[in-house]
């Protein structure tokens, strides 16, 4: 019975439109449920260093002002300090008791106080009083402790939404999201919502499949025309690599991707809208289940393109409310097409409630030099309506209706940001080398359309990682060898004189293929990467044959094996690669070593076990490549997509840096080249530490290339060695970040880790 009461109380707080009213109702319900004399909720005001009574039924101040208790004083503070409940028979006799002046507290004796804790932070205290001197029962104590635990998330979300901030609050209200694109911006909020939503489509059947297919094809044709127009509008405003995003969108509409699947479902008797909803939502669910953050963000693209087709199926006309002169664009999911539709010179900043740094919105924002904040937890869109906002894309901070002095400061910082971008661009043609002449190779991570000429203008040394998964995932069957050959040719031909590292198919339990369903309890430790492809040599051989056929007449192909844990996996993969090599040479009439070269073979170091297999693998491979994202995840035993533990995922963790340092030293000892292709390589501070460790090849997204180049050109190896020594002695990631920030400030590079120049 008590559990049912508790659930009802917490649900009432969750659903209430007014948070303060909800708390007031809750304390009354708790007092009634426990048949006690008073129930109160105190919330922590960390700025004033006080606990402030937010709601009470039974405890009241004589003057009507909020009851306040200084941190460190009284039983309330004692419960917070000890982070455990206090059940006291007579509070008036307790040594920690401090009488609350000008209140009716003196009429109470028995007290039970339970801290409200969210992610290790005390947010407040639930206090119940009774007039008789007795301990509360075990059942009553369990009830209050459970209530406090459930209130923690509710209060944390209310704090994020600004519901705890009153007009009397002395502090500036802010939200915290994830940094998506560096820079600062100020503007009026402009909330954007999709005009057609797949989740609002009601499934319906149709007995006119030909009619429905015609409607669907017309909608696809109109969507294609829209995308061409958006790409045309963006041409000249953004780098050509950004325009490649619209080619990816076009590819999603192809028959082999989405079209055939929708039409097949229509033939089974469903309306076009229903078939579209079903197929797109299947793709979306498939991408959202992925562990690779880059690939997972393609879910947003699939949903966006599906809803654009739906808009035409519903024959809706686009309606847009008037735009402010300068605005911060806010949406549940900011998409590439949404950005392209709005005037670039009026978008000051972006807030996407969902998404990560790998979303196309983030990629576009960075290429357009628009500050962006992503992944703002549990905030509804309507909260931002009619607000003035200041956005910090370095920290992920969003200031709500900030005062004039904050706005002035942000405008000044924005001007300095532009000056810094201009300097970086001016030096993009120079080599990446330190001031004392240590040369670093900068490579690209690729996974999108790669047929654009912009790649030839980038000052890079090759492709450090080409993800081959996307073509496999956007089809309802395995791509043929010919289809794969064509795709790989496009990549290799873009870099005829530079190495292109192609990672073999990295799918599995956490990256399911629609035509290869898998269900595993722990996909991160399951059947994925090389484990799956070696179990299915027919899939592996077709891909390797396609890569080799694409490389005929070229010598730039490198093959990279993912998820390697043992030398036996390398041996088996090598055997299959040799088999494919001689098959292709014979079938295509190639001369071995003349117009068909044996590709260099590399292994990804992402499973910690591989670190201790380096000497054993050295004679079997030509190079190593560190996947710092997965290595961090496996070393720290953290699923970074799990919100409860995502904060523990940190590539600056001392254990991660020590492992990276050990890998670099071991590879030097055995004489094998090693690169890093994770996010750390494109991070300003991370790149400096990696170079100090001895890494001479860093692979990153195109946005980071020129920034990392400029940073490296402004440091000496001696400076980097000092930074690395301090980092390896640090006890936690915060110490390392602080050290990097201070060092970069001291050498004039502070603008790469915080707002301003």
TrEMBL record:
Q: Which reaction does it catalyse?
A: L-histidyl-[protein] + phosphoenolpyruvate = N(pros)-phospho-L-histidyl-[protein] + pyruvate
Instruction: List UniProt keywords, sorted A-Z.
Output: Cytoplasm, Kinase, Magnesium, Metal-binding, Phosphotransferase system, Sugar transport, Transferase, Transport
For this protein, the record's InterPro entries field holds: GAF, GAF-like_dom_sf, PEP-util_enz_mobile_dom, PEP-utilizing_PTS_enzyme, PEP_util_C, PEP_util_CS, Phosphohistidine_dom_sf, PTS_EI-like
**Ranges for the GAF domain?**
18-165
Which top-level group of life is the source organism from? Bacteria
Cofactor(s) required for function per UniProt: Mg(2+)
Please name the top-level EC class of this enzyme.
transferase
Offer an example of a GO molecular function term for this protein: metal ion binding
Instruction: Report any one BP term from Gene Ontology.
Output: phosphoenolpyruvate-dependent sugar phosphotransferase system
* A single GO cellular-component term on record: cytoplasm
Q: Which SUPFAM superfamilies match?
A: Enzyme I of the PEP:sugar phosphotransferase system HPr-binding (sub)domain (SSF47831), GAF domain-like (SSF55781), Phosphoenolpyruvate/pyruvate domain (SSF51621), Phosphohistidine domain (SSF52009)
What protein family is recorded? Belongs to the PEP-utilizing enzyme family.
Q: What is this protein called?
A: phosphoenolpyruvate--protein phosphotransferase
From which organism does this entry originate?
Idiomarina ramblicola
């Amino acid at each position: 019975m008590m559990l049912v009461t508790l659930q009802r109380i917490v649900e009432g707080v969750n659903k209430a439109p007014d948070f303060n009213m909800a708390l007031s109702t809750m304390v009354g319900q708790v007092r009634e449920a426990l048949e006690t004399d008073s129930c109160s909720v105190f919330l922590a005001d960390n700025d004033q260093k006080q606990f402030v009574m937010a709601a009470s039924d039974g405890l009241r101040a004589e003057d009507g002002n909020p009851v306040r208790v200084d941190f460190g004083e009284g039983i309330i503070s004692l419960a917070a300090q000890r982070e455990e409940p206090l059940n006291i028979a007579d509070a008036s006799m307790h040594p920690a008791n401090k009488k609350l002046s000008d209140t009716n507290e003196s009429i109470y004796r028995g007290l039970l106080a339970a801290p409200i804790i969210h992610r290790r932070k005390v947010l407040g205290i639930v206090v119940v009083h009774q007039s008789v001197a007795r301990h509360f029962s075990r059942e009553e104590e369990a009830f209050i402790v459970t209530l406090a635990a459930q209130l923690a998330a509710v209060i944390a979300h209310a704090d994020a939404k600004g519901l705890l901030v009153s007009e009397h609050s002395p502090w500036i209200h802010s939200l915290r999201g994830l940094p998506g694109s560096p820079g600062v911006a100020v503007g009026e909020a402009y909330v954007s919502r999709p005009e057609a939503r797949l989740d609002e489509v009601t499934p319906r059947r149709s007995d006119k499949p030909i009619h429905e297919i015609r409607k669907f094809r017309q909608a696809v044709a109109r969507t294609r025309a829209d995308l061409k127009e958006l790409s045309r509008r963006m041409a000249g405003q953004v780098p050509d690599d950004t325009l490649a995003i619209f080619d990816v969108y076009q590819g999603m509409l192809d028959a082999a991707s989405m079209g055939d699947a929708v039409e097949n479902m229509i033939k089974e008797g469903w309306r076009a809208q229903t078939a579209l909803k079903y197929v797109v939502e299947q793709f979306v669910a498939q991408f959202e289940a992925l562990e690779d953050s880059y690939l997972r963000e393609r879910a947003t693209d699939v949903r966006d393109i599906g809803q654009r087709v739906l808009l035409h199926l519903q024959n809706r006309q686009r309606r847009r409310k008037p735009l402010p002169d300068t605005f911060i664009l806010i949406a549940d999911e900011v998409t590439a097409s949404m950005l392209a539709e709005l005037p670039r010179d009026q978008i000051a900043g972006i807030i996407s409630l969902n998404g990560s740094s790998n979303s196309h919105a983030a990629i576009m924002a960075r290429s357009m030099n628009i500050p962006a904040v992503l992944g703002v937890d549990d905030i509804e869109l309507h909260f931002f309506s009619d607000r003035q906002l200041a956005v910090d894309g370095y920290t992920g901070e969003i200031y709500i209706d900030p005062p004039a002095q904050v706005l002035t400061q942000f405008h000044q910082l924005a001007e300095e940001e532009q000056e810094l971008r201009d300097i970086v661009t001016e030096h993009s043609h120079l080599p990446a080398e330190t001031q004392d002449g240590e040369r670093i190779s900068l490579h690209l991570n690729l996974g999108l359309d790669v047929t654009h000429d912009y790649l030839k203008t980038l000052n890079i040394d090759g492709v450090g990682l080409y993800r081959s998964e996307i073509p496999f995932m956007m089809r309802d069957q395995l791509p043929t060898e010919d289809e794969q050959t064509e795709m790989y040719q496009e990549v290799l031909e873009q870099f005829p004189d530079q190495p292109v590292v192609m990672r073999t198919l990295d799918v599995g339990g956490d990256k399911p293929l629609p035509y290869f369903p898998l269900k595993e309890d722990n996909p991160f430790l399951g059947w994925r990467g090389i484990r799956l492809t070696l179990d299915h040599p027919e899939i592996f051989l077709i891909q390797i044959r396609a890569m080799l056929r694409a490389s005929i007449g070229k010598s730039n192909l490198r093959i990279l094996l993912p998820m390697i844990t043992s030398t036996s996996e390398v041996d088996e993969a090598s055997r299959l690669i040799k088999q494919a090599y001689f098959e292709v040479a014979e079938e295509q009439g190639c001369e071995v070593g003349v117009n068909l070269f044996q590709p260099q073979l590399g292994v990804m170091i992402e499973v910690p076990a591989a670190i201790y297999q380096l000497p054993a693998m050295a004679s079997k491979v030509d190079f190593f490549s560190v996947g710092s994202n997965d290595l961090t995840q496996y070393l720290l035993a953290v699923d970074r997509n799990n919100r409860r533990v995502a904060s523990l995922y940190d590539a600056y963790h001392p254990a991660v840096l020590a492992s990276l340092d050990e890998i670099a030293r071991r590879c030097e000892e055995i004489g094998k080249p090693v690169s890093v292709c994770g996010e750390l390589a494109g991070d300003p501070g991370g790149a400096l530490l990696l170079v100090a460790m001895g890494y001479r090849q860093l692979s990153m997204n195109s946005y980071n290339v020129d920034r990392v180049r400029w940073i490296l050109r402004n440091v000496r190896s001696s400076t980097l060695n000092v930074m690395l020594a301090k980092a390896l002695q640090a006890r936690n990631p915060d110490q390392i970040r602080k050290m990097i920030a201070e060092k970069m400030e001291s050498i004039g590079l502070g603008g790469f880790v915080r707002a301003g120049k």
